[in-house]
Write a structure and sequence with these properties.
Distance between the termini: 27 Å
Strand content: 5-15%
Number of strands: 8
CATH architecture: 3-Layer(aba) Sandwich
CATH class: Alpha Beta
Length: 240
């Protein structure tokens, strides 16, 4: 009971700082966007992500460690990861630079944060129209990769609890094959500290495993995604 109350107070403290700084940085970006370069906007977004991770560690005791950082290439590629919480979306968007987020288009309507997010040229898709969304992801994804941006996808589509993995869509494989770029698989256990659809953030150590690049040349999308899912499952089992 005491621990639960303590964790709730720590989480409240985190959200107060999180919301305050998000509104401040978002407002500053929106007002300054006419005079800021694209690179400056990306760097400001990365700074926001770093602040959130820092503030989460200070308030809630959530730390992380990375394995396989040397596997990240310098040139743009497609990154595929499991999806357990909002933590990994924040972490990944400061891990590589620059990165083009793939988001639900309704997120762009969120005051301040959503408006600022539109400045980093996200790939906004309509989940209610799967075929149109897949086509948009492919076309816009190819354009972003050619312009020098990394693409990060969560093929499950939705967040799943710690220890569970949803069905993988083939969109990421299709994009990598069409763009002729490698895929970097990433496995993590962010749901340990930031559970899906839970308010309380629990202290702990999040582990992120970055796999070796997987060549997409000459591969079939279903075979490629099956290999990626198998790798992520294997990493999860090793940590359990």
């Amino acid at each position: 009971m005491i621990n639960s109350l303590f964790y709730t107070l720590r989480t409240l403290c985190f959200y107060v700082g999180y919301v305050t700084v998000t509104i401040a940085i978002s407002s500053l970006l929106i007002l300054s966007s006419p005079i800021l370069s694209e690179v400056a906007i990306y760097r400001a977004s990365k700074l926001w992500c770093k602040f959130v991770l820092f503030w989460l560690r200070i308030c809630c005791g959530v730390k992380y460690e990375i394995f396989g950082l040397e596997n990240l290439p310098e040139s743009p590629c497609v990154i595929i990861a499991n999806h357990q919480s909002s933590w990994e979306t924040i972490f990944f968007y400061q891990l590589v630079f620059p990165v083009s987020p793939i988001i639900k288009k309704e997120l762009l309507r969120i005051p301040f944060w959503g408006w600022a997010l539109s400045l980093v040229k996200p790939i906004a898709i309509d989940r209610s129209k799967p075929r149109e969304a897949a086509r948009s992801l492919l076309v816009q994804g190819l354009s972003r990769l050619k312009s020098g941006c990394f693409i990060i996808l969560f093929p499950e589509g939705s967040r799943y609890p710690l220890g569970k993995l949803g069905k993988f869509s083939r969109s990421g494989a299709n994009l990598a094959i069409a763009a002729k770029v490698p895929i970097i698989p990433i496995s993590h256990n962010a749901g340990l500290c930031w559970p899906s659809r839970s308010f309380i953030k629990s202290p702990g150590l999040i582990q992120i495993y970055i796999g070796s690049p997987i060549d997409s040349a000459g591969r079939k999308d279903d075979e490629l995604m099956a290999q990626l899912r198998e790798w992520i499952v294997a990493q999860s089992l090793e940590r359990s």
